[in-house]
Amino acid sequence: MSKPLKIRAPEGKLGVLLPGLGAVATTFIAGVLAIRSGIGKPIGSITQMQTIRLGPRTEKRTPLIKNFVPLADLKDLVFGGWDIFKDDCYESAKKAGVLDINLLEKLKPELEKIKPIRGAFDRSYVRNLNGNFIKSGNKLELAGQLIEDIRRFKKENKCKRLVMIWCGSTEAYMERQKIHNSIKNFEEALKKDSKLIAPSMLYAYAAIKEGIPYANGAPNLSADIPALVNLSKKTKTPITGKDFKTGQTLLKTIIAPGLKARMLGLSGWFSTNILGNRDGEVLDDPLSFKTKEKSKLSVLEYILQPNLYPELYGKMHHKVRINYYPPRGDNKEAWDNLDIFGWLGYPMQIKINFLCRDSILAAPIVLDLVLFLDLAKRAGLDGIQEWLNFYFKSPQVAEGLYPEHDLFIQLTKLKNTIRWMMGEELITHLGREYYDN
Ligand SMILES: NC(=O)c1ccc[n+]([C@@H]2O[C@H](COP(=O)([O-])OP(=O)(O)OC[C@H]3O[C@@H](n4cnc5c(N)ncnc54)[C@H](O)[C@@H]3O)[C@@H](O)[C@H]2O)c1
């Protein structure tokens, strides 16, 4: 057993700052408000509902995670954020059409008080959005304004600590460039108002500079560049990302490890879906879609390891399609066709038709990230938090390391990290002790 980490108690208010007050953000905020007032349950949230086994099975110690690690209480969360549309959270939630209007009416007094701050935006990164509630200035000035916003929010709401989760739109695809390699290059590029700094990078920079934990719920690079990773080490800031693992990709990372575990082959996996929310509209632009596509495609390669199993996965065709179809709103419908093969190469098929609700699946992830990142900060952890990869489609990892996509390995890692923080024995599932004596 190792010594527990020294973890500061979660005293006082925790400010949750969300760039992008759209469908996911408002579903998360309204959800927490509903749960706080006893009219909803935090289904899907690990921090609120899951238990953790401690010690040997014979000890029967399985507390709820929230009773085991010192997490902030939901009643201490205060919400704020930015958007490029002026709608308050009630209006925005109503337009997003995820939650029932009767529920929203009950929460209206609290929701309409949460008004966005003007966003830092650059249309060349999200061509299908035309909001005009935006800041003016060059990139350096915008970063400075975001830092001022953060400090003002903290003071006005009497917050002791803050956390930032990017819930903004998916930005156009970009590869890492030289200016992303060091904080010196990055800050020089800020001064030069470089086009290579995307708005999400400005928010990430502002948060990390202020020592505020940062997570990226979208697939764009944002904090996944050496400049910001190094800065997060310097300012003792935990960071994580990218792209919330919900819907179709969640199912992929549940099913693919099972096929591989049983050494069943896969010759093709075709995924298509229709969705009609603002996210779908943004992804209708090929530049934003490319960022999402990369994120969705990488999952199978890493789980199935065709380099190690060329006979089973070497010829796999993996296609992902997203179709913007307004009538469906946030209620996505996804179809998957898997061509698999078994003993002696005999082919079989699996069909999945998932009628999911995107933001309903994403909201508990936002809550868990808020609470776990705040915990990480109070426990003195900084830089990339690989134990939170469980929540992401494109997990951020150290340079030169490949990401672990298998949901069950990710969960084991998350729970062992919590045990390690608290000085409990790690669980390897070896279990010899039950049989040796
Ligand atoms: N299950 C899911 O819903 C899910 C899963 C994985 C990833 N994501 C990602 O999460 C993000 C949010 O999804 P959503 O469904 O809430 O989308 P949304 O379009 O409803 O909300 C995004 C909001 O961000 C705002 N925005 C865009 N750029 C901004 C900027 N620079 N500054 C401030 N605000 C900005 C938009 O105006 C919009 O209101 C998207 O990038 C999406 O791809 C969502």
On the 0-100 scale, what is the average pLDDT?
95
Individual helix count: 16
Strand order of the largest sheet: 3-2-1-4-5-6-11
Pairing-aware structural class of the strands and helices? alpha/beta
Described by the principal axes of the CA atoms, the overall outline is globular
Question: Biggest sheet, open or closed, and with what strands and sense?
Answer: 7 strands, parallel
* Ligand roster: nicotinamide-adenine-dinucleotide
Q: CATH-wise, what's the superfamily of the largest domain?
A: NAD(P)-binding Rossmann-like Domain
Write down the domain tally.
2
Which fold name fills CATH's third level, the topology of the largest domain? Answer: Rossmann fold
Strand content: 15-25%
The CATH class name of the largest domain reads: Alpha Beta
SSE string, helices as H and strands as E: EHHHEHHEHEHHEHEHEHHHEEEHEHH
DSSP helix fraction: 25-40%
Nearest-angstrom radius of gyration? 22 Å
- Count all strands and give the number: 11
Runs in which pLDDT lies below 50 for 5 or more consecutive residues are none
Annotated CATH architecture of the largest domain: 3-Layer(aba) Sandwich
Distance between the amino and carboxyl termini = 21 Å
